[in-house]
Specification:
Helices cover 28% and strands 44% of the residues. It has a single domain, classed as Lipoprotein localisation LolA/LolB/LppX (outer membrane lipoprotein receptor (LolB), chain A), CATH 2.50.20. The radius of gyration is 22 Å and the shape is globular. Strands 1, 2, 3, 4, 5, 6, 7, 8, 9, 10, 11 and 12 form a twelve-stranded antiparallel β-sheet that branches. The chain is an alpha+beta fold and 196 residues long. This is Outer membrane lipoprotein-sorting protein. Keywords: Signal.
């Protein structure tokens, strides 16, 4: 036996469906929103713990230190333990200080080095162009909890890094994992960054 259904019932179902359709995008996060959230601060500082997993070693290598970003283009990663090292990016200039020696590189002349740097600098500055220059990406999640998977566009870079996965919440980057083509990987966990 078929039960008659009123037109009011159909209107209710249609309104519910429309409500779900309209509210779903509010839960999702797009790249523009993420970059806007990330780029709203002039300065950020925080601490990191980086763990490198290498097949040739019995146990992972662990390093700790501080990260700092000052708008529009200064980024520093200062390793404190186990040995002191400073990696400083100021626009196109990359400077590395390690073991009493200093190395200076123009990122525009070293696309592979630039691709490494583009991940963290692009995220902290909210510059999607930096990320898109070097990577194809897929963003998943919501503003509260997001994951950004990036695959290098450059063939030479792909032979070194197969994938980079960054995750975070709102405007905070929490982890960045570099997965190397040879199976090794490094994971940087960043404590909440102070923002100004």
């Amino acid at each position: 036996m078929q039960v008659p259904v009123s037109s009011r019932f159909f209107r209710r179902v249609a309104l519910l469906a429309a409500g779900f359709a309209l509210s779903a995008p509010a839960w999702a996060l797009d790249m523009g929103q993420l970059m806007q959230n990330m780029g709203q601060y002039k300065e950020r500082t925080g601490r990191f713990v980086e763990t490198k997993h290498m097949k040739v070693l019995d146990k992972p290598l662990r390093s700790t230190g501080e990260v700092r970003y000052v708008a529009p283009q200064l980024f520093e990663k200062k390793t404190v333990e186990p040995t002191a090292e400073l990696l400083r990016v100021d626009g196109d200039a990359l400077r590395v200080e390690r073991g009493g020696k200093t190395y200076n590189v123009r990122l525009s002349s070293q696309p592979q080095a630039a691709a490494f740097v583009d991940v963290i600098v692009g995220l902290l500055t909210g510059d999607a162009g930096k990320l898109e220059r070097s990577y194809d990406y897929e963003l998943k999640g919501t503003a509260k909890k997001w994951t950004l998977a990036m695959v290098p566009k450059d063939v030479k870079m792909k032979s070194i890094i197969s994938k980079v996965v960054a995750s975070g919440d709102r405007e905070q980057v929490r982890t960045i994992e570099y997965q190397q083509a040879d199976g090794d990987r490094s994971v940087m966990v960043i404590e909440p960054l102070d923002k100004r």
